[in-house]
Amino acid sequence: MTDLHRFIKALPKAELHLHIEGSLEPEQMFELAQRNNVTLPYGSVEDIRKAYDFNNLQEFLDLYYAGMSVLQTQQDFYDLTYAYLKRVHADNCRHVEIFFDPQGHTDRGIAFSDVIEGILDALAQGQTDFGISSHLILSFLRHLSEEAAFETLAQAEPYLDRIMGVGLDSSELGHPPSKFERVFAKAREMGLKLFAHAGEEGPPEYVYEALDLLKVDRIDHGNRSLEDDDLVKRLVDEQMVLTVCPLSNLKLCVVDDLTDHPLKTMLAMGLKATVNSDDPSYFGGYLNDNYIQTADALNLTQEEIVQLVKNGFEGAYLSPDRATELMFELATAVSAFRAQ
Ligand code: HPA
Ligand SMILES: [Zn+2]
């Protein structure tokens, strides 16, 4: 292990772009399939891992939605979420803001309440057991209609005190942010924060739409913003947080090689980029793997790593006390490391 790897591991971190269904590990998929009498189209854990070879976002999404079929009960959603928290606790992750895709479950006949209550109970237990603070973000599937998104938002009403925001994910091309302008306006009126995947595969125009029409508080991914100088200038001026996911970008062929990843350039341009894992089970790495592999590929400095971690804390919706606490933990970890 290099010094930089040890440095990354020693730092407290936040994760702001994580789909909880994308943390379903093949072993757990098998276990839940057995528990729920679901037949999987795979013979072994190795077969599943072999199938995770994607050429684009849609190829991943097809397996991601198929994998969800094993999630049936409130306990399943609890176990899924608790396993993720336990795993990122080992990465010294101190705060998470996670997406869930309720329509991927309610459309299969699972009750919204089972999905959200399982996840929320595990998040509460993660706070108790691991000291991880968290927020939950309800994400709309953009390949479905805006009407379906409105119906999902209505189902969330009893839980509004425990949902921090709404997001927009799934197949980006052909489903621009403009399709969801009204439902995002409604979510804003309800006091929710607003997030949208934009510029992962979609053009810079989709990032403009997320900013101007949806009025988002963060852009998820945002990579293709770099094709438009005016857009980059605006994102820098507004200090808009980008939740970048390097290993996801590699696995979904958004970049050909990690050495081509724009993360270092983003920081140099003054963009408020953060590092996240997106769907760690499918993309081959959790939070530290994303930091470490990207740091190696791009020769990131300790200062750049600290900037990324700080951006994560500043881009998160932390209470003032929690923000102070985490910034103090970060400063302490950096000094302790440098004093060695
Ligand atoms: O990376 C992603 N992009 C779009 N939709 C998603 N749903 C889960 N992960 C993703
Ligand atoms: Zn994502």
TrEMBL record:
GO terms for biological process: adenine catabolic process; hypoxanthine salvage; nucleotide metabolic process. GO terms for cellular component: cytosol. It catalyses: adenine + H2O + H(+) = hypoxanthine + NH4(+). Pfam families: A_deaminase (PF00962). Zn(2+) binds at H17, H19, H197, D278. The record marks H221 as: Important for catalytic activity. Binds 1 zinc ion per subunit. The active site is at E200 (proton donor). Its EC number is 3.5.4.2. Residues 12-331 form the Adenosine deaminase domain. The keyword ATP-binding does not apply. Its cofactor is Zn(2+). Keywords: Hydrolase, Metal-binding, Nucleotide metabolism, Zinc. GO terms for molecular function: adenine deaminase activity; zinc ion binding. Substrate binds at D279. Catalyzes the hydrolytic deamination of adenine to hypoxanthine. Plays an important role in the purine salvage pathway and in nitrogen catabolism. NCBIfam families: aden_deam, PRK09358.1-6. Belongs to the metallo-dependent hydrolases superfamily. Adenosine and AMP deaminases family. Adenine deaminase type 2 subfamily. This is Adenine deaminase. It comes from Litorimonas cladophorae.
